[in-house]
Write a structure and sequence with these properties.
Structural class: alpha+beta
Number of helices: 4
CATH superfamily: Jelly Rolls
Largest sheet: 7 strands, mixed
Order of helices and strands: EHHHHEEEEEEEEEEE
Helix content: 10-25%
Radius of gyration: 16 Å
Shape: globular
Distance between the termini: 23 Å
Strand order of the largest sheet: 1-2-3-4-11-6-9
Length: 204
C-alpha cells in the first residue's frame, strides 16, 4: 500500500460503510441484495478484514443511493470555493492503491478531481463503470491501461485521455512501477446517484 504522510486524513472504509448503512437503516443482508455482493464480503469490509476495489465502492454507493464521495465525508457541506492543502485532502485506501480527494467532495459545482496512486497490478475492479458527464485522465507517472467499451488505451507519463463517461470503462496498472494518475470528472448531472457511478451489474 502506498505510504501516507503523517498528516494525511486517512479514511477507514469499513467504519464509513457501516455509518452510511446504519444511518439509512439498511441491514447488511439488504445491502448485499441491493449491491449484488455477498453478506460475508460486506462483513469483511466493515470489519476491516479486506479492502474493496474502486468498482465495489461505486456499487455500494449506488445501492445506498449516495454519492461515492460520501465515503470521504458523509456530512460535507458544499462550497463555491475550495482551497485544500496537500496534508488536508482525504485519502481512501483501496485494494493495491490509494484514492485522494482534491476538493470535489466539498465543491458545489459539477466537477470531481481526484488522484490515484496505483501499485503494480492495481485495477478498478471486476466491473465496468458508466456515469453521466465527461472524464479526463492524465498519467503523471508509470503506466495506465484504460479500456473504453472494447478498445484499450495505454497511457504513459504525459499522456491523456478524454471521453464521454457514458461509455463503459475500467482501468488497471499493467506496469512494473507505481503509477500516479489525475482524473477529473465534469458535467455529471446534479443529483445523479452515480457520480456516484452506475455499475455494470455482474457478479464478483
Amino acid at each position: 500500500m502506498p505510504t501516507l504522510s503523517r498528516e494525511a486524513i486517512s479514511i477507514d472504509v469499513g467504519i464509513r460503510l457501516r455509518q452510511l448503512r446504519e444511518g439509512r437503516k439498511v441491514s447488511m443482508r439488504t445491502l448485499a441484495q441491493m449491491s449484488g455482493l455477498s453478506a460475508n464480503a460486506l462483513s469483511m469490509i466493515e470489519r476491516g478484514k479486506t479492502s474493496p476495489s474502486v468498482s465495489t465502492l461505486y456499487r455500494l454507493a449506488d445501492a445506498l443511493g449516495v454519492p461515492v464521495t460520501d465515503f470521504f465525508s458523509p456530512e460535507s457541506s458544499r462550497k463555491k470555493v475550495v482551497f485544500l492543502k496537500g496534508e488536508e485532502r482525504p485519502r481512501l485506501p483501496f485494494m493495491r492503491g490509494l484514492w485522494e480527494g482534491l476538493g470535489g467532495e466539498q465543491f458545489s459545482g459539477r466537477m470531481m478531481p481526484f488522484m490515484l496512486t496505483l501499485e503494480n497490478g492495481a485495477s478498478s475492479g471486476p466491473n465496468s463503470v458508466v456515469h453521466t458527464g465527461h472524464e479526463f485522465v492524465y498519467c503523471l507517472r508509470g503506466q495506465l491501461e484504460y479500456q473504453l467499451e472494447n478498445k484499450v488505451y495505454l497511457l504513459e507519463a504525459g499522456d491523456s485521455l478524454l471521453f464521454s463517461a457514458q461509455l463503459k470503462h475500467r482501468w488497471r496498472n499493467p506496469g512494473g512501477m507505481v503509477a500516479n494518475i489525475l482524473i477529473i470528472i465534469s458535467d455529471y448531472v446534479e443529483g445523479d446517484q452515480s457520480m456516484p457511478m452506475h455499475m455494470e451489474k455482474s457478479s464478483l
